[in-house]
Amino acid sequence: MITLQQLKFKYPNTAFGLTIDQLTLDAGLTAIVGQNGAGKTTLIKLLTGLLTPQTGQIQLAGHSLAELTPAQRLRQIGITFQDPDDQLFNSTVESEVAWGLKQLGTDTETITATVDRVLLEVGLQDRREQNPYDLSLSERKLLVIATVLAIDPAIYLFDEPMVALDWQSRQRVMAIFHRLAEAGRQVIVITHDMDLVAAGFDSVTVLRAGEVVFTGTPTALFQDAALVQRAQLMLPRLMQITAALGDSGVYLDVADYARQHEA
Ligand SMILES: Nc1ncnc2c1ncn2[C@@H]1O[C@H](COP(=O)(O)OP(=O)(O)OP(=O)(O)O)[C@@H](O)[C@H]1O
Questions:
Q1: Which of 26, 90, 136, 154 has the fewest CB atoms nearer than 10 Å to its CB?
Q2: Is residue 54 within 6 Å of ligand 1 at its C-beta?
């Protein structure tokens, strides 16, 4: 669980500021949504300690983020950036995945087994000798996911992980998120994809102009038409269709619609 209290952050020389009086992000799958520039990436950079708030407290599982050593942070929290090229710097896929484990002093045998396992899980098992920059964008996005899976922190932060992925890879990544949540990890995903939020997440946090304007279930969010509009979000595509047909129900996906319309 993550808690933020009385948090204020401002970039130097810009008008943008993030202000959060109180926010609790519970275990499970959480989506962070909001229009461009709302502060989503800034928030997750604060959660990793890549940015430091001017005031306020961030606690990860009861421990102050500011007091964790770099190795403790690496074990506690992992992040993938929107652009994988911001975090790839090794000369092979294999060494990229092994890098974090080496920093933690993991033995060679465990590193080899872990690299094999996570490359298989993201579907890059045949690419281990390649230079990461010879991979396609979608493969590089899968590779950065593998680098975090290798360390297996308590908290995973993914910034737009699905962008550029085809349908099969999206299914694969969603299955990874569910596996992690079932294994007790906290998974926080920034996305603009409301179909994904509706169908796949336990909770959703909405940011608007540097403030949290909602935290709750996807059902509660999509019930609140005024909030959806104020935060400039889209409804899930299924709900756009049903709303256009005069049905004001909340439907998270096709299966949910069918369930609600069973005789
Ligand atoms: N390093 C920086 N220095 C100054 N301003 C920044 C910096 N990074 C982001 N900003 C500004 O902070 C604001 C919030 O940016 P942020 O990237 O957190 O938004 P976001 O919700 O993730 O947007 P998007 O959906 O476009 O990724 C924006 O106005 C952005 O221009």
A1: 136
A2: no
